[in-house]
Amino acid sequence: MNYYITWHYTTHGIAYLKHILSWFYKNNTLQPPKKLVENIEQEELNDVFDVVKKGKKFDKIFYLTAKQEVFDRISSRRYSYKDNYKKDEILKEKGLIELYNELRGDSDLCYNLDKEIVYVRDKYPTKLDDFKKYLWREIQHYDISTQIKWLKGMSNFSTIYRGNEFQEFQLGVNDLRDIQGIVNALKDFVKENTCPDDNCIVNISLGSAETEVAWFILADNGILPHNTKFIQTYDDKSIPGKRFKPFCIKQVPVKLIDDVRDSFEFYKGTKSKKRELVTKLFNKYLASGFPVLLLGERGTGKSHLVATSKKDNKREPVEANCASFTDNTIAESELFGYEKGAFTGGEKNGKKGLIRSAENGVLFLDEIHHLSKYMQAKLMKAFQTDPENKFHIRPVGSADELPVKNVKLVFATNHTIEQLKNDLLPDFYDRIVQYVVEIPPLRETKEDLKKDIESVWKYLYPNEESLIDPSKELLKWVKSLELRGNYRDLQNIVRYYKIFNEFDEKTKNGICNQYGINCSALDYTKKCFEKYHLTSDGKEKFIADIDLSDSKNIKNSVLSQFANWAIEMFGSRKNAAKELGISEKTLYNWKQ
Predict the structure, then answer these.
(1) Average pLDDT of the chain, as a whole number
(2) In this structure, is residue 580 part of a structural domain?
């Protein structure tokens, strides 16, 4: 059997699937191209299924979905781009703009396809055929069930693929950022619906970044049919103004983890499968040329991971901490540079800027959630590449744009993906969330803990001849900690452990008597760490500071503190209100 398997893609919609399948049918093949195929026009492919010919087709199309709200949580473009029809030249040419204005302006009609067709048939009968013919240009905004109904019942897809040759599978996935949940659901799907000798083409680039990782995990564990091939499809965003851009198809290795050489030493000798996957994914993603987003708690080593890219790129990454940009003027001048005399206090001969400095290398923007909306919009435009893979930026004070070539972009944040969606403009979010690498916290990789402590020792004391030899008691204690500060917590622990052993006996006894502890490096380390450093992230428990002398205002004081804690805990007032099951107005009133 020959199968084509893909996830639903919320930003492109089901017409994109039809066009990809049309390419295979037009080229009379069920095999992915051996070389990259570019400039595939969607408008031209849209008519391929109009006529039945002696072309090869897949025995079955498996279309993987989840509930609509699950997809809506990872991208809002289904709604935020709904006015794009107003700029669609084809719809203008066919005189359909006024019709769409009426449909989109009526909440009872909008995206209810059955009602829309009745409305058009009754009010614009001469436009009904064109409305149906060009509906593919708008179908991505409808819900998944409507898109599938259109594909099977109204489009030319049904001329070629009939009956059960197209099959939707709504997998029990409630979070498209949950790799483990996706892997489990896909594993069950594959085992129930494929055989080891089936020929499968899997489009891994649709769904979410996590679904793509899940396919590689299944392949590495031998769960997919032996004759599985992976493809990626992506459109050319460098073409301005064109609503449906040409797309590319390319085949990618199935055994990514086996095929990619382990060139990074960030987790050298790791026993952790999670860490092993991080280094190999980061290596592969960075080499692709597409932006990479690193997600990880504070202190997990995101900057150190990026620094390892020097080995392959032959130069130091250019790094900026977005939290250091105190205003837009500073951010713009640091990133884009400025011309001589652009403003008072600038360097005499102007400044090159970080983006230009990263040419032919890596630009690493840490703590990306601190960027203002203004700078996000500026960078979104700057990071659009032309056909030669060049950025075009305008330094402050310059009238001309300057080309910058071959810049690999890496972003990092300690916010969750949900928080990041609230921090960033939707377009900027979509641009940077292409390849995502989640760096596990130390509490999830405790099999490497002894090695981590030794690595921290080498980092802090590179000239010391003898390394720390963690005792069983020290390791047992450290393993019991949540280590919310990750490597930063380990650094503090190592410092305390080392300094105690350097005290003379009199000082040791004096300190231990004062603290009421046994005279040992371990007890001293425990006492100092627990007294001066967080043993949790500080957000898991709400602790109110109550002034008992002001009994009349205790309630208001506690509610105000709780509101501030909740907003910080969940990333925004909107998120906090949703998690607490109250209105934003109520939370706002508590905060006052």
Answers:
(1) 86
(2) yes
